[in-house]
Amino acid sequence: MSEDGSDGGNFFARLMSVFAINRYVGEGAMSGMGFNRAATWVAMISAITGGVIGLSTYRMDVNKQIDERVEKSFEMIQAYNVSDLTDARSRVMSYVYARRECDARYINRDLTDDDYVRVLEFYDLVHLCVEAGLCDAPTVKRFFEPHASFQWPVLTRVVDRMREGESAALSVRSDEAFAIGMRSLAAEDAVAPPCDGNF
Hints:
Elements: H1 11-20, H2 35-80, H3 83-101, H4 113-131, H5 137-164, H6 180-185
Helix pairs in contact: 1-2, 2-5, 3-4, 3-5, 4-5
């Protein structure tokens, strides 16, 4: 919104001041010369023009902010697909698939708790980006919700185990906000089939 006050919000105030000019028609040295009528029209046109320009400027500012949030969201999506993170994601997904298939043979032997932390912290970062108004919520949801919904019903058990571990108090895992990102991005009805397999 422009700082000079020429926005849509001041439009009606200007218009009212223009109509107030009509009170003085017929008074003063300029009466009878059409001065008040001309001044009224000039002021009305000025008020309308200022209001339209102010509204257009406001809309441009809003659209720019939305575009920047969408752009930031795509940056997060690109970061999600960077090779360093995809390696950790691949190992974490091996566990997710194993739990969903009830077959521990799917689990990558190189999987560590650091992989879980890295993936879950990335989702926390995405969540914070949306909460801070830097990322576009619909764009983030459209891309990340399917991923989160598939993983979270399985990884919630992992998070609970990590919080109860001996080293949890010395790490980020003890923070109540840890893993809030994936939890918030997952659909509320996301579930994983029960597994009584070889785990």
